Amino acid sequence: MTHLFKSEKVQYLCTCGSLKPLCRTFFCRHCLALKCGDCVFHEVDILYCSNCLENVPPGEARVKKNQCSECFECPVCDQLLLTRATNIQVPSTEDPSKLVPKKMFYLVCGFCRWTTREAGLPDQPSATGSWPDSDNANSTRVAALLEHYRSLAQLDKFEKEQKRQLKRRSNYLSFTAVSDKYSLSALAARKRSGLPFSGSLGMKKETPQIYKVESAVASEETDDALDPDIFTKVLTLSSVTTIDQRIRQSERQPVKSEDLIPIHKFLSVRRSQRCRFCEHNLSKPEYNPSSIKFKIHLGAFYHVPDVIIFRLSREDMQLRLCNRSQYPTHVRLLSLDQFSSIAHLKIEELERSVGEAEKEKKSASSMVGHELCESPATQAANLRTCLTNALKEKVNAFFQLPSEQILLPARDDLAEYELTAPQNLKDDPKAVLWRKGNKVVVSTPLTVLDDEMEEKRAGFVFEFGAVRAGFETKEVQPQPTNVYIPVFISLGKI
Amino acid sequence: MDSLTLSTAKIANGAIVCCECELQGDITIGSRTVIHPRAKIIALLGPIVIGENNIIEEQVQIINNGEDTMVIGNNNVFEVDCRVESKKIGDNNIVESKAFVGRQTSLSNGCVIGAKCEVLVHETLQEGSLFYGSGPDVKRRVQSDKPSAQGAQIEFLSKVLPNYHRIRKPMV
Which Pfam families does the record cross-reference, listed alphabetically (chain A) (predicted)? Predict the structure, then answer.
């Protein structure tokens, strides 16, 4: 599905100034603005194993080094290892002379047919959880280093806190430091020279101690000396590991392929996205790892009309518009010049109302949530950045756009199956060529600036009515606000 | 049923060879070998000798376009739509779906040619050689244990195939 709509031909101008296909953007219904993946907050919602779909809490994941304890990957080719059962004959516990069948398990790769038997690992009596973990030879050193850096971080934090306290105190000091009675001037001198606060004032907190760690010493002899056979015997490539395979097991880095052991599968992360400006959630998946649904999903695909090139030629250029939102909307296609004049007017109007708002003594810092998004100052700023970004884009072809508003009906899943006559809408037959359900095809003949054979690019600005979030619940009919989104279309060499 | 009249294939007792498969030229098929419908075995110049307990699935192409005899051993599996032109194939090999084994390559025993792998190397593959990956990124390694025998599958096919397909009579 993504692939079908992920065309790079039609690109929408995001609030941050980058161009993205519609299905790669979000539409914040509070700010009424496009947000792409590069200009939203990404938050880790859950960590889970993509194979066994087990949800792992973040604390536990850190202890397990972000690995699943049950699932393994092939050390040779990175595919998932499957558990296979075999029956072996073992002496019975009651009568050692008799043999009874016993189920044993081993891991096998379905792709390159590597098995744990090749690594010399014995078969396990239970299917999961009993595989031995590789012990890291450097684990004590790593732990010591970790401890050292943790203590450094603590000290850093402590100093920052103290600086903040000193700052708070500095006003008081400037009054009292004149007298040396309490040795405060020494303290002030220390502070001026940038030295840390010595604590002579009787600070309650103690400075955290730095965990000392011995520095590593280079030695002449190393453990991983080359095998002398390597110079005399013919090397069989299949018996040594590749660089990729060694890096994948970075703590062991086996040289021989028989030393490869299964790798724990790394956990995957499910993210939620948040608008940077108003901090509302744009996308929030359900917590259950096996569910692919969203609790909140403000993909622009479902809220902003979609454009595709319906027919591509100079005289007979046609665009198809499609509205996938649940509200009908009026769309107007504006040229970039029209947009700039409209935007200038709007900005003036908004700035006038900013002045009025200031009279009511509402500063931006006191506003929260809805108020901030809807404040005229924000809207004016948004419109201005949108305009400057849109005018930066290079275009060398122009559409002759229909001048009238076009109604795009709301999405109706049943409309596909109903054979009702199309609604009698007063469309300009020259502009609107065809209409079915929530889709409209408009005629937009092209004017090309230069006739040279080069890539042609044209742009226009969508003006459409969007309903701000939070208004649907009210009894009054939702009042759509006009939103302007510039769209740029690569037309190729025509 | 052109293949019925054209071919002079020698089919041993117990082999299951569907009538819809295409056999051309001098072909010998060993007992308990199963050949699915739509498989193509073509001996253009030299003969093809197929051993026992082999499975040759749909759309497999086994072609001998040289003058020497092409010998296929026992217990081999040729999966759907693979193409084999190799002169010599030993025992217990698996050629997976869409794989291609060229004329210069000979398989010894217990080799596996992975799905979509094209193997054209000028050598006789070492026992237990294994190719995996696809396109330009085919990798090889040697595995220690042999591919498991397909006895149960052959038994099942010999029971089921005659229920739905016409089977060629053994001809020695």
Answer: Dynactin_p62 (PF05502)
| 3-class DSSP state of B131 | strand
Rounded average pLDDT over A206-230: 79
**CB-based contact (8 Å) between B145 and chain A?**
yes
Q: Beta-carbon neighbour count of residue B69 at 10 Å?
A: 15
Say if residue B7's pLDDT is above 90: no
CA A295 – CA B78 distance, rounded (Å): 49
The tens digit of pLDDT for each residue in A256-290 reads 888 888 999 999 999 999 998 888 899 999 988 88
The pair of structure tokens assigned to A4 is 């079908």
DSSP B68: S
- A25 HSE (CA, 13 A, CB side): 31
B112 touches chain A (CB under 8 A): yes
pTM of the entire predicted model? 0.73
DSSP symbol at A411: P
Tell me how close the Cα of A226 comes to any Cα of chain B, in angstroms.
22
Looking at residue B33, the DSSP 8-state letter turns out to be -
Instruction: Write down how long chain B is.
Output: 172
Q: Provide Rg for chain B, Cα atoms.
A: 15
| Helix (H), strand (E) at residue A265 | strand A263-266
User: Mean pLDDT throughout A143-166?
Assistant: 90
Taking alpha carbons only, the member of A358, A335, A334, A350 closest to residue A382 is A350
pLDDT tier, A175 (very low <50, low <70, confident <90, very high otherwise): very low
Taking the mean position of all CA atoms in its chain, how far away is CA A477? 35
Which residues from A are below 8 Å from B when comparing CB atoms? Answer: 76-77, 111-115, 117-118, 236, 238-239, 257
Q: Give bridge partners of residue A308 from the DSSP assignment.
A: A320
Helix extents (H) in A368-433: 369-374, 376-392
Task: Decide if B145 and A112 are in contact by the 8 Å CB cutoff.
Answer: no
Rounded CA separation A27/A272 (Å):
14
End-to-end CA distance of chain B: 20
**Residue partners of A484: CB distance under 8 A and separation at least 6:** A334, A339, A342, A343, A383, A386, A461, A462, A463
Residue B98, number of CB atoms within 10 A of its CB: 17
Q: Which residues of A touch B146 (CB under 8 A)?
A: none
> Which of A116, A238, A240 is the best substitution to test chain B (most B C-beta atoms within 10 A)?
A238
- Of the listed ranges A99-108, A180-189, A271-280, B25-34, the one predicted with least confidence: A180-189
In what helix (H) or strand (E) does residue A48 lie, and over which residues does it extend? strand A40-48
How close, in Å, is residue A256 to chain B by CA atoms? 12
Most B CBs within 10 A among A111, A113, A243, hence the mutation to make, goes to A113
Q: CB A112 to CB B140 under 8 A?
A: no
pLDDT, one tens digit per residue, over B145-161 is: 778 878 899 999 999 99
A238:B144 CB<8 A: no
Q: Determine, for residues B143 and A113 on separate chains, whether the beta-carbon distance falls below 8 Å.
A: yes
> B2-164, superfamily in CATH?
Hexapeptide repeat proteins (2.160.10.10)
